[in-house]
Amino acid sequence: MQSFGFRRLGDAPRATPFWTQANALLIKNLTYQKRNLRRNISLISFPIILCSLLAAIQTFVDKNLDNPDLNCGCACVDKNGDGKCEKVCGIEYSSSTQAPNCPNPSPPRWAPILQMPAPDFRAVRTDFFPYTDLPNESCRESASCPVTMLFTGKNRSLGNILAGNMVPSSLFWNSSDAMNAASLNVLGSEKKPTTNGYLDSAFFSSLPLYYILRQCVKSPTVSIPVSLFSLTNAQKVACVQGLQLWRNSSSQVNDEIYRGYINGNPEGKINEILSGFDFLNSDRNNFNVTILYNSSYKASAGSPNFRLRVPRLVNLVSNGYLKFMLGAGTEMPFQFVKEMPKHETKTQIDFSSNLGALFFTWVILQPFPVILTSLVSEKQQKLRIMMKMHGLGDGPYWMISYAYFLTVYAVYMFCFVMFGSVIGLDFFTMNDYGIQLVFYLLFINVLVSVAFLMAGMFSDVKTAEVSAYIGVFGTGLLGGFLFQFFIEDPSFPHGWLILMELYPGFMLYRGLYEFAFFSVTGKIIGTSGMQWGDLTDSTNGMGEILIIMLFEWIVVLLIAYYIDQVLSSGKHPLFFLQRHDKKTTSNNLVLERQRSKVVVQIDKHDVREEREKVERLLNERHPGHGVICDHLKKVYPGRDGNPEKFAVKGLSLAIDRGECFGMLGPNGAGKTSFISMMIGLTKPTAGTAFVEGLDIRTEMNAVYESMGVCPQHDLLWDNLTGREHLLFYGRLKSLKGSALIQAVEESLKEVNLFKGGVADKQAGMYSGGMKRRLSVAISLIGDPKVVYMDEPSTGLDPASRKTLWNAVKRGKQDRAIILTTHSMEEAEVLCDRIGIFVDGCLQCVGHPKELKARYGGVYVFTMTTSAVHEGYVEDMVKQLAPGSNKIYHLSGTQKFELPKHEVRIADVFLAVEKAKSRFAVLAWGLSDTTLEDVFIKVAKGAKTSHMLS
């Protein structure tokens, strides 16, 4: 047996070039986009309207912020004592809402303090803090737990000395100058710092201040009188013991401080250390120290260090070393801290930046559902497979579709950013446009890739659309009320943050959050927003976001393409590892044919001859046939306990060019399964078929180049005209220029869609018959060598049906047409040969007249009389033809089959005339066998044989 993987010599189908396919799809997409102009304008207007709304709100906010009540407070003061007052403005005349805007040439001085753990959260001995030198947990009940300070270094003896010098053993107090006295002691507060530089809230809090001593035996409680403008308070200061403990390494100190956070230990309990000190290689000639502290007390990003209350730690350790070097009487006092002087300002609120991350997340994600539903719509309406069956390859489809949606998204973002900049939103104008360009460009690439990925997982447009919008709004809400909390929490593990940022929605939210933060901060302190140099800042997450976007874009795009190839193209999951071996394929095909011979028993001479013809053509490598099916078989696996379904049982069939082959059969016979295998929708279970010499199992992409399809249901774009459909599919068949225009004009005339401007109407306005005619024209344009037509005349009126039949007759020149239909008249008019398909098997094949002669060697005689004369009619028929057979009987109407060799037509007429003379004959008739009779007879005979077997 010779190889079956032959190719026609000298007349192989010429593949449409890649760029020709890409150009055809691009022109179609641009035309489709032009038809959707109103929707595009609405999409582009969406961010413009929202930006305008933000600008209007910002104007309203700015106008209200100009309210005199928000400016620095003023009063009428008699400066000269002459009874005349002058208007004087200043902090001392301001309320708490006015004070931040006042000029502050001499900020008040505050005694430096330490940030201390609350009494209930101070470090004690626990299961995850096994150090025995920590106090017992019972101290929390009496609120007497000390604050712990950890020490380490290379020289332990020196470390002990320095640690001992840091905390005083007694209180130094001067009630006449309490604030200065407070600076000479070591004060601390559990009150967290605020953003107000002119006011340290620890001195105006209900929480007490503490002074730290080595021991608190009978230590007095003192009071600090504080007065600031209209605020006065007598802040109580109580003693707390400073517990100084040695650790063997800096890593132990760091670990113990970190594990004191609520998220740093398995029990989730707070067990805080005040601070840690690593003296490194310090000695009499060198002083090197690392200070470790809880940085989560940072009031806000960008706050000055003194608000972290770190300077006092630096002062303590410096004093400890000075006392070691110069004696116990040496002191480097740290008298006060204060903010820098400032000029008068106005209350400013950048509404767009403060609202930015949440609001702009929703705005930027809006095109995503549009792209996703468009991709799923092509899939649901089978437009993608329709284009593929007419020669559009996966490469051009992916390149043009991706570039198309990317361009639409880029235009949307360009309008969004540019309009926001034009109306002066600080969110856009203050941040570097280069960073914004890279960020938005990378993100829209990621999102378009995600849309292609998700399109492979949805088969219904409504489900995809609802899921997409839930994702859009859910992302914004989760980002604003959950993800932002993790961003701003320094104790949240950075690795988990990166993992969350792999989700595109959080990735977008993080980038917008950084833009918003830098624009707000820049507005407050009078600098520019985010610049390229800021990406190196460890607290700025934009750098890592750009890297994540770049890698995720590549990975998601590759995964999306892989899923598309497996699900949409039906390739093996490991297709990229498979190698096509023609010799192996041929050997496997031989074995499958041998197995098919055992399963399928062919006992009809016409079917046997067709099989032998196929064998001969394959052995001779005959180039003259358009389609050759060789033991084609399709088996659907059993489900839910049902057995396997044999849809096609070893079909062998040869169809020549210039021939229209009609495939007839009852519903469920296997016709659709056969067509689905031939057009590449499903893979054969066994056997194969050759189309113009190309194997449908291994060379289907090349088969598409020479194939035309008219599906049972019209697969059309509602917004494109009939002419635009034909132009698109003509370009896919490599037609260009005047040849393309001429082919389109002729196709429109052939199917009667040329007159009256019908060709330039959108397909959505066509009637059902017009759509069928357009589908037929699409299947024939571009001179395809093989055309599949599935019930092409369904729903047509008689006149349109005749027009369509004429078009098919003219179109079958030099091409093979496979046509399925339930219309016997259509099959008789169009088909050169007919095959009747029943229960997955070809029961007979031949010319319509030949089949009628073979299966219709009878006349059908019908007579209607009264019921009492039925017996006479039956006897009359038996006299005319002893071998007659009654096939119908109802209420006096009887129908008989009369073998042609037993009866003459003249005898029938004489018998009827004789019967009329005896009784009333209501109606009678004699007819030859029709194709419908043949179809019914073959179908019934096949089913009866199947039941008996």
Automatic annotation (TrEMBL):
InterPro entries assigned to the protein according to its UniProt record, in alphabetical order: AAA+_ATPase (IPR003593), ABC2_TM (IPR013525), ABC_transporter-like_ATP-bd (IPR003439), ABC_transporter-like_CS (IPR017871), ABCA (IPR026082), P-loop_NTPase (IPR027417)
Organism domain of life: Eukaryota
Domain ABC transporter: 627-864
PANTHER family recorded: ABC TRANSPORTER A FAMILY MEMBER 3-RELATED, ATP-BINDING CASSETTE TRANSPORTER SUBFAMILY A ABCA
Chief place where the protein resides: membrane
Family per record: Belongs to the ABC transporter superfamily. ABCA family. CPR flippase (TC 3.A.1.211) subfamily.
The protein, known as: ABC transporter A family member 7-like isoform X1
Protein's cellular compartments: Membrane
Listed GO CC annotations: membrane
Lipid bilayer topology: Multi-pass membrane protein
Pfam families recorded: ABC2_membrane_3, ABC_tran, ABCA12_C
This protein's UniProt keywords: ATP-binding, Membrane, Nucleotide-binding, Transmembrane, Transmembrane helix
Residue intervals passing through the bilayer: 41-61, 355-376, 397-425, 437-459, 466-487, 507-525, 545-563
GO molecular function: ABC-type transporter activity; ATP binding; ATP hydrolysis activity; lipid transporter activity
